[in-house]
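Why do we care about 3D structure at all? Because function follows from shape, and shape follows, mostly, from sequence. That is the central idea of this module. The next example makes it concrete: a single protein chain, its amino acid sequence, and then its structure expressed as tokens.
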Amino acid sequence: MRLLGTILRWAVGLVLGLVILIALSIPFDALIGRGRVDALTNTSIANPAGPPVRAYLARPPGPGPHPAVIMIHEWWGLREELIGKAEALAADGYLVVVPDTFRGSSTGWIPRAIFQVSTSSREQVRNDLDAVYAWLAALPDVRADAIAVIGFCYGGRTSLLYSLHNENIAATGVFYGMTETTPEALAGLRGPVLGIFGGADASIPLAEVDGLRANLAAAGVEHTISVYPGQPHAFVTGMEAIRAGGAPGEAWEELLAFLRATLQASQAPAPRQVAEGAPPPRSLLGAMHHRFVCGT
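And the structure:
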């Protein structure tokens, strides 16, 4: 028994030590990562709800007016690979703004990524995106009726939430992000939805993807939900991997086709009305891991 008690004390001590080290690693990573966001942004957007929103702006060639895309980062925060995606979209004719929704925080360390998501409230993120949208829609070289929002992981979830909040969004792209939705709520979406998911994603069960597809159909929202067999979460990485082909390249081509069809039309879709006789609400939020993998 004495040996068992000693082993238990050692085990508890090791666990507590690990917890303390992880907790201390978060401010340490913040300290060594100061300036990461500033180094990746080239624009500051006035924000009535808080500090200015730092963002990266990629402009297409020509005078415009251009369709525009708000691109939302993963739970890591603003990083280099997203800048590459923004420049690639700009080369195809879109004015792209990549806002920092974590207000200066970016990381490659999972504990801090969890901390970033859990300490950035939906209201704060929504208000910051409102400032970004208003600024973008007022630019003379932007078509205010042709602004899409797309995002990856946390950003995919956030893009759908923001489109549910802002009825002026013309199209929504969700890369492996999930949120609570009902047909009644989804019926308020103005434009179509593209969903990209991995068939081997351990954080988003395929049953929930099927539920999202069913609820979009029940709401009468035009949508394309694609599942790429064998692909894990966050499989559409940087432009190098996208240009190499395979599933990341195919998913990117699907996004380009979606944006051409929705944003380059002569007239954007009118706001939707909630359909009568919609089915009762159905939650698509599964296990608690969604809170940290795809955001709150």
